[in-house]
Amino acid sequence: MERAAVFDVDGTLVDTNHLHVVTWWEAFRQAGHQVPMHAVHRAIGLGSTDLIAHVLGENRDEDQDSELSAAHKALYGQYFDRLPALADAGALLRRLHGDGRRVVLATSASGAELSALRRALDADEAITATASADDVEEGKPAPEPVQLALELAGVPAERAVFVGDTVWDMQAGRRAGVRCVGVLSGGIPRADLEEAGAQAVYADPAALLAALADSPLA
């Protein structure tokens, strides 16, 4: 039976979390909201509307959400031609593909942003499919992105592992019934990832690749 390796992208395979923090912070600042960067950082990995709600609260002026999201998209878009893949991220995907895993991306990115992330990874030949923000009703921590990734891979939850860098990733994977692996490259502490459901935690994709034989992906 086939096996699947499902990956978040931002902060997990491509070193973009802090770019998101800065560009969201600037979008909030331009709209008159003074928010600390650490609060933005903890919300990275959520879809735009959920991120705004997490940072500003449910009592915010929701009419401003689309303006904030558009500002962030424009600011972040300035980096599309130089997004940096994390060390050995592409090599990890190619190794898993070569070992017979169906590799699927489950990401809140879509459109031009997702295209830029895939260019940074330079591993399209190893990627079976992508579950993007455009394909689901609810983003992480809802299980829908991971469930869709499993459908695209044609693999049941018990034959899959989900790799991510945020508590939202771990919660989504756990709710979808898959084993979860965390990486520290997004800046979230090991203890938080483990509490959210990570069965194993590695420094980054390079460390996961080096320890692959003894990992949940073995």
UniProtKB/TrEMBL annotation:
Keywords carried by this UniProt record: Hydrolase
GO MF, any single term: hydrolase activity
Alphabetical list of Gene3D superfamilies matching this protein: HAD superfamily/HAD-like, Putative phosphatase, domain 2
Pfam families for the chain: Hydrolase (PF00702)
Keyword hit for Transmembrane helix: no
Protein name: HAD family hydrolase
Organism: Streptomyces phaeoluteigriseus
